[in-house]
Amino acid sequence: MNIDTAAFELKAEREKVLHQLAELGADEQGELTGDVDYGEGFADAAAATAERTEVLGIVENLMKALNDVDAALKHVAAGTYGICEVCGNEISPARLEFRPTSTRCVDCKAQSE
Q1: In the list 1, 34, 35, 72, which could disulfide-bond 101, CB 3.0-4.6 Å?
Q2: pLDDT per residue over 28-63, tens digit each?
Q3: Cβ proximity of 10 and 76 under 8 Å
Q4: What is this structure's pTM?
């Protein structure tokens, strides 16, 4: 995957994540905006709390994905995209195609787990 294709795909992924956050009623910082109604009735309080907790978990996962995309875009801008942040070797094109936000080569990633 060439750098222009990677940048295009990363920007598209960023927009997708932002759209998903907005659908959940969260802004770009992961804060709930209050645009989603979780119910106001006392009888629905437990269900509303459970739903809100679930939404917060999803928002947290989306924020991690957004941060990963933003970090990858910074690497593109700096000219370091596709270079392992640990060993400095090239990250394989197959790995970047599978996971464009990768910052470590397969060997370094395996050692960190």
Answers
A1: 72
A2: 999 888 755 555 554 567 777 788 889 899 999 999
A3: yes
A4: 0.82
Structure-token pair, residue 89: 């070797």
Q: Count Cα neighbours of 105 within 13 Å in the Cβ-side half-sphere.
A: 11
Backbone angles phi, psi at 41, to 5 degrees: -70, 145
Q: Name the one residue in this structure whose structure tokens are 């598209």.
A: 12
Locate the domains of the chain by residue range: 3-79, 82-113
pLDDT in tens, 72-112: 999 999 999 999 999 999 999 999 999 999 999 999 999 98
3-state secondary structure of 26: strand
Burial class (CB in 10 A: 0-12, 13-18, 19+), 94: exposed
Q: How many CA atoms lie within 13 A of 90 on its CB side?
A: 4
